[in-house]
Write a structure and sequence with these properties.
heterodimer; A: mainly alpha; 86% helix; 0% strand; B: mainly alpha; 2 helices
Chain lengths: 173, 64
């Protein structure tokens, strides 16, 4: 009897955790997008008002943010400073690939962010500002879509994981 | 005849009903339908032995 209870608790918790892990994929994406947008806003400030050169600006931002974004900016800054790369676009997209692997961003977000690397630092300040504005709008759209998806899926996956554990338990007993 | 089976079937029924609600609410009507069907099949599999026993009993009772 005790063995059954212990086994049941194990099955239930395993399935519950599985469901939560599946739900996390949806609940953390909007947060990641928001965090990325905040860091891009810092970059805009550095470029438009501080007139900081890009490697320097990336370095400054990497000191202010945390987690995967910190690695992202410090990696780009290091590569640009160290002379391993003279091309921002390739370095940027390499960093984005790594960033997407470490966060919950999707490949659609990856394309958008990688595309932004092409215009970054390629024109004067006024023009850059316009590009930033456009990028914010696009990011906002992605964020809204992610939020909608979260609303639709998060609760369902949590319930689904738990209930499937319950079904397995009842069938086995 | 064990009563446990009835409780088991009742529990499965409740869970399938909740699953159905949750899935319909998140706009996955086909999957909700599939879970309902799967629940029915599972319960049928559980009681199929008893049904065949019932038929056998009826047959022997009327000597068919």
């Amino acid at each position: 009897m005790i063995l059954k209870v212990i086994g049941g608790i194990m099955i239930l918790s395993a399935c519950g955790v599985l469901g939560i892990a599946a739900a996390n994929k949806y609940s953390l994406r909007p947060k990641d997008i928001r965090r990325f947008r905040a860091s891009i806003q810092m970059l805009e400030t550095e470029i438009i008002y501080g007139c900081t050169p890009l490697p320097h600006a990336f370095n400054n931002i990497s000191a202010k943010v945390e987690g995967p974004l910190k690695n992202f900016y410090s990696m780009i800054s290091d590569e640009l400073n160290g002379g391993c790369s003279y091309n921002l676009d390739t370095t940027w997209s390499k960093g984005v690939n790594k960033l997407v692997g470490e966060t919950f961003l999707k490949s659609a977000d990856k394309d958008l962010i990688a595309g932004f690397g092409k215009v970054l630092g390629s024109s004067d300040r006024e023009d850059q500002k316009k590009h930033f504005e456009l990028f914010y709008i696009q990011l906002k759209q992605h964020e809204e879509a992610a939020e909608e998806e979260r609303h639709k899926n998060e609760k369902m996956y949590k319930t689904l994981g738990f209930l499937s554990g319950l079904v397995i338990f009842i069938l086995l007993v | 005849m064990d009563v446990n089976l009835i409780f088991k079937i009742a529990a499965i029924g409740i869970i399938v009903a909740i699953l159905n609600r949750v899935l319909t609410q998140s706009g996955r009507d086909e999957i909700a339908m599939m879970t309902t069907l799967a629940g029915t099949v599972v319960v049928l599999l559980m009681i199929i032995g008893m049904i065949s026993k019932l038929f056998d009993t009826v047959r022997t009772m009327f000597q068919l």
